[in-house]
Amino acid sequence: MKWFKVMEGSSQIGEGEVAEANAGNRKLAISKMEGVICALDGACAHEGGPLGKGSISNGNVVCPWHGWEFDPCNGQYVYNPSKVVESFPVEVRKDGVYVGV
Questions:
Q1: Within 13 Å, how many C-alpha atoms sit on residue 21's CB side?
Q2: Which of 4, 30, 46, 79 is deepest in the core (most CB within 10 A)?
Q3: What percent of the chain has pLDDT over 70?
């Protein structure tokens, strides 16, 4: 696993928001819920929609293309746990937010 700095600090993402970030050659969806920052693969498990350009609803990351909802930290699709988007570990350090890919 390699750690990538994806944000200068945790204040770069607001509570209840989703943002797109790059970690190496991977596009990620970074979210913040109840002060916890989580990282998912940026492609929706349905048809590859850009999760990082989605939104948060009912505590879930929502794909902007077809509304599929995923748990922001473990990537499970809300209505069928066998559908999963890969999740990644996050560390908030003094100099920024890092994701392990």
A1: 27
A2: 30
A3: 100
In whole angstroms, how large is the CA radius of gyration of the chain?
12
C-alpha atoms less than 13 angstroms from C-alpha of 71 in its C-beta half-sphere: 15
> Are residues 18 and 33 in contact, defined by beta-carbon separation less than 8 angstroms?
no
Give the range of the structural domain holding residue 14, as residue numbers without chain letter: 3-100
Rounded-to-integer distance, Cα 21 and Cα 2, Å: 15
Residue 68: CATH number of its domain: 2.102.10.10
pLDDT digits (tens, 9 = 90+) for 24-50: 999 999 999 999 999 999 999 999 999
**Cα–Cα distance between 57 and 31 in angstroms, integer?**
12
Q: What is the pLDDT of residues 64-86, one digit of tens each?
A: 999 999 999 999 999 998 999 99
C-alpha 10/C-alpha 65 separation (Å) is 27
Average confidence (pLDDT) over 84-93: 97
User: In which residue are the tokens 């790059």 written?
Assistant: 22
